[in-house]
Specification:
The complex is a heterodimer of chains A (144) and B (147). Chain A is an all-beta fold and 144 residues long. Chain A is built from no helices and ten strands. In chain A, strand 7 and strand 8 form a beta hairpin. Chain A starts with a strand and ends with a strand. In chain A, 38% of the residues are buried. Classes of the chains: A mainly beta (144), B mainly alpha (147).
């Protein structure tokens, strides 16, 4: 797993570009054996204690997005990119998000990860990002 | 009046191959309301990704959310134009192929352009219209964006 902090200018907050490697039960990289592996997410979030309205009610594709390297399916090595990931805001804020990630292969889906993401910022151009509940395969803690 | 008529006409559009939840909100009204609910300048990555996949559906949702006069109010119009801009910022990401063609969006923008009195707002509409027209003129080769 690789985590990069994205450039968000002078906004309050932080966004990341996270590259994941899909692994099997033994920690061995999976390539799907030719089957397309589609990373999806279901997210619920609050900002300053208020629920964020309008988020997809079910699972939605993690990619593609405007960020280079993102795609609908994991690549041939079983890697995929989740970006942008985070929140920027016009004023100081704190947010908590629950992100469940699953991999869809054909008609089957496999839950692979849960991130409880806390993003906060008290000054423009800066932010802290942490996933407080121990995830499978490493943490995403960053700040700038 | 055109916008009001449009609100009725869009009911006739059908979108297939959507999940049950999405079918219940086939014009993404929940999402667009959520975007409007955020303060100007906020960027929540999951909302932004969903917005970037809307294309023409953004304009349909906005017409349904705001009444004809409400949409003409400067604050509502300004936020609506920002959402439309975002919804066409990366046309190859637009989820439903027919929504990559901005037919409803341009219809709405032309109607608003003819009715708005404020010169600054009219320029903002014209600029959004040009942005949408130029952005959607390129082909996505039938595929989705991202690499």
């Amino acid at each position: 797993m690789n985590v990069e902090v994205m450039d968000t200018g002078n906004a309050y907050g932080i966004k990341e570009k996270v590259t994941y490697q899909i692994v099997d039960q033994n920690g061995k990289a999976m390539n799907g054996n030719g089957a397309k592996m589609e990373p999806q997410e279901h997210v619920e979030a609050t900002i300053n204690g208020q629920p964020v309205q309008g988020l997809p009610s079910g699972y939605a594709d993690i990619g593609p997005s405007r960020v280079a390297g993102t795609s609908k399916y994991a690549n041939a090595k079983g890697q995929f990119v989740d970006a942008p990931l985070g929140v920027t805001y016009p004023v100081p804020f704190g947010s908590v998000s629950h992100q469940q990630i699953r991999i869809k292969v054909g008609k089957e889906s496999f839950a692979v990860r849960y991130n409880r993401i806390v993003v906060s910022s008290n000054s423009p151009g800066h932010g802290q990002f942490s996933n407080q509940i121990g995830p499978i395969g490493g943490d995403l803690n960053e700040q700038h | 009046m055109l916008v009001g008529l449009l609100a009725s006409l869009v009911l006739c559009f059908s979108i297939s191959a959507r999940s049950q939840d999405e079918e219940a909100d086939q014009y993404s009204i929940r999402l667009v309301k959520g975007l409007l609910d955020q303060p100007e300048g906020a960027s929540v990555s999951w909302l932004d990704k969903a917005r970037d996949r809307l294309g023409d559906r953004a304009a349909i949702a906005l017409v349904k959310i705001f009444g004809e006069q409400e949409l003409l109010q400067p604050k509502n119009l300004h936020r609506s134009l920002q959402i439309i801009h975002g919804a066409f910022s990366a046309p190859c990401l637009i989820e439903i192929e027919s929504d990559r063609k901005p037919s409803i969006t341009l219809f709405v923008l032309r109607d608003l352009e003819g009715r708005v009195k404020d010169e600054t707002l009219r320029k903002e509409i014209t600029s959004t219209k040009t942005f949408v027209e130029q952005g959607t003129s390129a082909s996505c080769n039938g595929g989705k964006g991202g690499s």
